[in-house]
Write a structure and sequence with these properties.
mainly alpha; 5 helices; globular
């Protein structure tokens, strides 16, 4: 969700995975990029909830993306961003 709406990966500024683990152990979430709308950010924060019961179901997220992001992102752009994200995760 973060990547799809912002085009950036979470923790972009942290190159060392250990630093990410430390931040997560302190319940820190990635910084909000300037290009994420309030309603998108609210959903992202729900997805990152420390209480699993407060996280949205996958169907809720997919429905939200289908309804809210289609005017913002063309389907091809979303697919392209996901492909780029997967490539960034590969060694």
């Amino acid at each position: 969700m973060f990547f799809i709406v912002s085009g950036d990966i979470p923790w972009k500024g942290k190159k060392n995975p250990t630093h990410i683990i430390i931040a997560l152990s302190n319940k820190v979430v990635p910084a909000r990029p300037n290009n994420i709308l309030n309603n998108h950010w609210n959903l992202i924060k729900k997805c990152w909830s420390w209480n699993p019961d407060n996280r949205p179901e996958a169907t809720e997220v997919v429905g939200y993306l289908a309804m809210k992001t289609s005017p913002i992102l063309e389907r091809a752009e979303v697919v392209e961003r996901c492909a780029v994200f997967r490539c960034r995760l590969c060694p």
